[in-house]
Automatic annotation (TrEMBL):
<feature type="transmembrane region" description="Helical">
    <location>
        <begin position="6"/>
        <end position="25"/>
    </location>
</feature>
<feature type="transmembrane region" description="Helical">
    <location>
        <begin position="72"/>
        <end position="90"/>
    </location>
</feature>
<dbReference type="GO" id="GO:0016740">
    <property type="term" value="F:transferase activity"/>
</dbReference>
<dbReference type="Pfam" id="PF01222">
    <property type="entry name" value="ERG4_ERG24"/>
</dbReference>
<keyword id="KW-1133">Transmembrane helix</keyword>
<keyword id="KW-0812">Transmembrane</keyword>
<feature type="transmembrane region" description="Helical">
    <location>
        <begin position="40"/>
        <end position="60"/>
    </location>
</feature>
<dbReference type="GO" id="GO:0016126">
    <property type="term" value="P:sterol biosynthetic process"/>
</dbReference>
<keyword id="KW-0472">Membrane</keyword>
<feature type="transmembrane region" description="Helical">
    <location>
        <begin position="127"/>
        <end position="143"/>
    </location>
</feature>
<dbReference type="InterPro" id="IPR001171">
    <property type="entry name" value="ERG24_DHCR-like"/>
</dbReference>
<protein>
    <submittedName>
        <fullName>Isoprenylcysteine carboxylmethyltransferase family protein</fullName>
    </submittedName>
</protein>
<dbReference type="GO" id="GO:0016628">
    <property type="term" value="F:oxidoreductase activity, acting on the CH-CH group of donors, NAD or NADP as acceptor"/>
</dbReference>
<dbReference type="GO" id="GO:0016020">
    <property type="term" value="C:membrane"/>
</dbReference>
Length: 205
């Protein structure tokens, strides 16, 4: 079990920084990437992500130096968070395809790619995928019981909030009044409303 916890903790410190960084590279510079085109964007981001992971790997020992041992008492809570994460993620996947997950609509040269998601779980909160990511990270931290993964779970709160703000700025530019109206109908970013207020159309962003 100690080996499994270590491997999962290592994967967390390797994967989370480039995964979150992907969106920080995308949204603030979306006009620049649209001019260069998708192949250039995906090439640069992929190479940058692997380079970041390689650098992190070199510092894996100090990053994973503090761990609190195998604690079965934390596992039920970890499974609870993980189950909630999977539930929210599956609800999101009913509305998202791979192109959307990779940010392809944002990168269309016209700046008008895709259509706005307003149905399903997106009629209850505006950023359910970020909620799913955070819930899953907490589960990961509780199971591995490594300080570094707890730090990642805490750091994700402001990090994902800022990603949401940057994404909403891009969506507002892309969809204009339609997105403003959607925000009016669904005022909460991360906490679901009790009843659906959005369109039931299966749209993609």
């Amino acid at each position: 079990m100690d080996t499994a916890r270590y491997v999962l903790a290592l994967l967390a410190v390797l994967m989370y920084p480039p995964a979150v960084g992907w969106w920080y590279v995308t949204h603030p510079f979306i006009g620049f990437w649209r001019r260069l085109g998708r192949p250039v964007f995906y090439g640069v981001v992929t190479v940058g992500s692997f380079a970041m992971m390689a650098i992190i790997y070199l510092f894996r020992e100090p990053l994973l130096a503090v761990e609190y041992g195998t604690d079965p008492y934390l596992w039920p809570l970890a499974f609870l968070f993980y189950g909630a994460s999977v539930y929210v993620e599956l609800r999101c996947r009913k509305r998202l395809d791979l192109k959307i997950l990779l940010g392809a609509p944002e990168l269309e040269r016209s700046g008008k790619g895709g259509r706005l998601i307003t149905g399903g779980i997106y009629a209850r909160m505006r950023h359910p995928r970020y909620v799913a990511v955070w819930l899953g990270t907490v589960a990961w931290a509780l199971f591995t019981n490594y300080l570094a993964v707890y730090v990642i779970a805490v750091a994700l709160v402001p990090a994902l909030y800022l990603v949401a703000v940057l994404e909403e700025r891009e969506l507002r530019q892309r969809f204009g009044a339609e997105y403003v109206e959607y925000c009016r109908r669904v005022p909460r970013r991360f906490v679901p409303t009790l009843r659906s207020t959005g369109s039931s159309r299966p749209l993609s962003r």
